[in-house]
Amino acid sequence: MNALAIDTTNNVLGVAIVNGETVIGEYITNLKKNHSVRAMPAIEGLLHDCDFTPKDLEKIIVATGPGSYTGVRIGVSIAKTMAWALKIPIVGVSSLETLAANGRYFDGLISPIFDARRGQVYTGLYQYDENSDLVTVHKDQNLLLTDWIEHLYKSDKNVLFLGNDVHIHKDTIIELLGDRAVIGNVSLHNPRPAELGLIGIKREATDVHKLVPNYIRLAEAEAKWLEQQK
After folding, report:
1. CATH 3.30.420.40 applies to domain 2-95+190-225
2. pLDDT value at 136 more than 90
3. Quick one: which of 114, 140, 156, 168 is 20 to 30 A from 219 by CA?
4. CA 19 to CA 200: how far, in whole Å?
5. Nearest-CA neighbor of 10 among 168, 107, 116?
6. Which is it for strands 109-117 and 181-183: parallel, antiparallel or unpaired?
7. Residue-wise pLDDT tens digits, 5-25
8. ∠ at Cα 197 (164, 45), nearest 5°?
């Protein structure tokens, strides 16, 4: 099955074409540029380079968040439009799970990190099982980093921290978790669209009209508006 994976949830823009366990092509950048301008040309370019046409695609896989509110919306909108127009299945995958997949050979827990400002992070807890499948230990959430580290401290396992925002919190992580904190190599901090594709290609499709972004928390403006309505 030929599947197109799309991730625009953070600064990283990634698209990939996978088939089963084979990565046919992958495009990735880590730039503070407008995904709404660059995403479709990236998809078109990758299809062209891989000698694919949209009609060769049999599934669309998209990172649904959390992340940048605008970035999440861009990727989900493109994915839903393509799936609907091509009449092919669509699957949504957590952006944090996609990042955690980079820790494939780590013997311990994996904590992907997206900064959420004011000392907060988006994170979840994952690990690979004996079958080399990535499993969720704790679901994705938004909380204070210090509360998260306190929770992780109760475990006796080492924890691998991944993500381009880890450097923001590195000192706090090491101070509170000590030697059990493992900071991933810089090459592991970019979420890989190929990993997104390999996760999603095995999953059941979602109704295209029911697939929605997973922001985890409301944008600040939305939260303030709702508070005012009360």
Report:
1. yes
2. yes
3. 168
4. 11
5. 116
6. unpaired
7. 999 999 999 999 999 999 999
8. 85
Q: Are 28 and 45 in contact (CB under 8 A)?
A: no
Which tokens hold the place of 46? 């990758």
pTM of the predicted structure, to 2 decimals = 0.93
Please count the other Cβ atoms lying within 10 Å of the Cβ belonging to residue 133. 10
Instruction: Give the model's pLDDT for residue 230.
Output: 58
- d(C-alpha 114, C-alpha 216), whole Å: 12
Domain 104-188 classified CATH 3.40.50.720? no
**Domain limits, the chain:** 2-95+190-225, 104-188
Residue 207 confidence (pLDDT) above 90: yes
pLDDT (tens digit, 9 = 90+) per residue, 52-76? 999 999 999 999 999 999 999 999 9
Q: Which of 129, 133, 132, 127 is nearest to 152 (CA)?
A: 127
